[in-house]
Amino acid sequence: MNDPIPVRDRGDVPLYLEARNYIDVEVVRLEPRLSDPDGKVATVRSFNQDLGNPQASFRSVQVAGTSGKGSTSTWLARILRACGVSTGLHVSPYLQVATEKTWMNGRYAAPRSWHEAYLRVRPVAEEYRTRSDCRASVHGMASLGVTYECFRHEGLDWAVMETGVGGRYDLIQGLDRRLAVITDIGLDHLKTLGEDRETIAWHKAGIMEGARRALATWDPEIWPVFEEQAARSGCRLEAARPEEVATLHPSSEGTVVRLRLPRAGTVEIAWPFGGGGFRLRNFTVAALAADMLADEGVSLTPEALLAALAAGPIPGRLETVQTGPTVILDAAHNPQKMQALMESLFTGGRRSYSRLLLVMAATGDRAVEEFAAVFPERPDVLMLTRPLLYGKKVSAPSELAQPLRGWARSMLQADSPRLAMEGILARARPDDLVLVTGSIYLVGQARDRWYPWEQVLLEGTSFPK
User: Fold this and answer.
1) Contact predicate 442/359, CB 8 Å
2) What is the pLDDT of residues 195-244, one digit of tens each?
3) Residues 387, 390, 393, 398: what is their CA dihedral angle, to the nearest 10 degrees?
4) Domains of the chain, CATH where assigned
5) Measuring CA to CA, how many Å separate 217 from each of 37, 84, 177, 369, 389?
């Protein structure tokens, strides 16, 4: 699994920047389009057809859910690759570089290859920019199109596709979908998906359409929604109960996880991350998904699960990037994710640090006071900032400060993640905990301090040497 890392030409960085600027800035529409869900899906299918339907050139697993879908997608792609399957992974959004959306067999797409795919997609994107009947985001379709083209050019057997928003009317359409996976459902994107869990589950369940089988985390309140969609779609639905499937046990060499998988049987492997929490939950759902693909020719082994874990933590998810002081990055951007983060960090109530220093930002219409409500303790220092982002609503630090006034013992503001990190680390002591959270864009831009984006791009990994 330790493939050699060929040197990529630093001169290709401008090619990447050209393509990224086109997709992330030039074609981004600042005024929202008319709400027309069915028209949106029709537009996406037309766009893909004009590209030659690259999204149908490989078998796919699509993952949806409110929380855990990105991590589950990443674990599953790693497992499939370790099973000897040629695998791609698409996640959205990205942390540091846009090529993270186009992971192929362990590495992000090379800048030149990504640029070449962009050149194939651009003529179609240009046409749809000017069409009055275009009901879907050209930015989103073009971004997906580049990934599809890279996957097709690479000749991949499988791809794991993380849903953007919802599922039923998401931009991901027309896959050769062999498995639909739905992770935990909570309240998020309420303006788009509805204000109750049943309606949100209905949107997520839409990815079952056309799928042969489906796996959804067991939730008795919304399970009838999944059953109804599975019956309508004619796919076989199974329930994922991670807390029953996976258990942690101490051993003479550390912690092991015991997985009771329906097809592969009981498997015991070393668990490198200490406690369980959402990391174990998401890994278990991914293992169950891989187990369901047995009749697709995927042979799940303990060695494959070990190899997936050996690839390291998922960047930006409970990621420790420094000690003395300890700095943890976690892209929790809704109350459900924040609650899972708190359970992972503070279970047991024992403090292993002197002070809690928190760096926070929010995009969209996030109610940061809901984030504060799940914290078991007040931060000693709260640094509010705003990530640099084009075409999306970003709350100014002064806006965030109003509902959080009086919560932290000390409150500071900074105009950028870089300045925020400089300011908070200048105040941190070696025995403090610095937590950076609230926005995936904040986490990605803060991460640049330890892993510069250009190195991530050129080495094709979030952990460059």
Assistant:
1) yes
2) 788 999 999 999 999 999 999 999 999 999 999 999 999 999 999 999 99
3) 40
4) 10-313 (3.40.1190.10), 319-447 (3.90.190.20)
5) 26, 26, 19, 28, 33
